[in-house]
Design a protein that fits this description.
Strand content: under 5%
Distance between the termini: 51 Å
Number of strands: 0
Mean pLDDT: 83
Number of helices: 6
Low-confidence stretches: 8-16
Helix content: over 70%
Length: 143
Amino acid sequence: MFKSIAKWWQPAAFVSHPTERFVELDWLRVLAFGLLVFYHTGMLYTQNWGFHFKSNYLSTEIENLMLFLSPWRMGLIWFISGAALSCLLQKSPLPQFLMIRTVKILLPLLVGVWFVVPIQLYAQMQQEVGLTLSYVEFYIAFF
């Protein structure tokens, strides 16, 4: 395991084996995504952290665990992103890479803006100010 991690720092490893998968990076990505899901779900249950809306079941234990994860969770995600981008840049020319990544990032962003953000804001406004609009009326007013 450590030999395959050590070769990440050697640029020749990417050039000599462009199709090789880094299984350790894949498992690190799975772990980081699991922690990301836990972290954002935990925001519903923390007592002292502001979030869009809160559950009635608050916990200080979850808050303590999230405080433990907080200092290094984003660094882990940025490390994984940088390693994956480095591998992708070795396999395709820069203009093609930029076009593919723009499409792959822009489409989920637009789905989030059109579907996820309005639901989140609707739930928050119902909880905080007692919004009386139906979701369809709110959605039309939102846009």
